[in-house]
């Protein structure tokens, strides 16, 4: 019997140049590989319209799922269109998950940064000092 879906999982990242997203993409790929899936990485440049077009492409490729790795925008006028596209993809059997709190109509997987910082105060910041820093590396 032929499966209606491929072993493909789309990973839509907001900004591929940001090291944060490369770590996420690597983790998703590692887990997908262990489960017998292959990932297709797509940079969406923080554009909802690009997320919608990439989601359509995943549907065309009969992907098993898609991972949204990015937070979206506040008051995004395209957000309702993305929600509709996610719903349509889910109706066709494509699984979707967001790695940020987004109202997409799919499950979200998020990290409780405060709990992590409380448990591991010396490793909670990017700089390893346990203090908050600005984007220029100065104490905030």
From TrEMBL:
Pfam families: Peripla_BP_1. This is LacI family transcriptional regulator. InterPro entries: Peripla_BP/Lac1_sug-bd_dom, Peripla_BP_I. The gene is lacI. SUPFAM superfamilies: Periplasmic binding protein-like I (SSF53822). It comes from Streptomyces alboflavus. It comes from the Bacteria. Residues 115-140 are annotated as: Disordered. Residues 9-119 form the Periplasmic binding protein/LacI sugar binding domain. Residues 120-134 have a biased composition (Polar residues). One of its GO terms (molecular function) is DNA-binding transcription factor activity.
């Amino acid at each position: 019997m032929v499966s209606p879906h491929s072993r493909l999982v789309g990973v839509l990242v907001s900004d591929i140049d940001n090291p944060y997203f490369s770590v996420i993409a690597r983790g998703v790929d590692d887990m997908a590989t262990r489960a017998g899936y292959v990932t297709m990485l797509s940079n969406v440049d923080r554009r909802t319209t690009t997320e919608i077009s990439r989601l359509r492409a995943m549907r065309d490729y009969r992907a098993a799922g898609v991972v949204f790795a990015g937070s979206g925008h506040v008051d995004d006028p395209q957000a309702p269109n993305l929600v509709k596209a996610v719903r349509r993809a889910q109706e066709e059997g494509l699984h979707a998950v967001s790695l940020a709190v987004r109202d997409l109509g799919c499950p979200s997987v998020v990290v409780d940064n405060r709990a992590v910082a409380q448990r591991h105060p010396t490793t909670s910041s990017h700089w390893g000092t346990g203090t908050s820093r600005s984007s220029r590396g100065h104490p905030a």
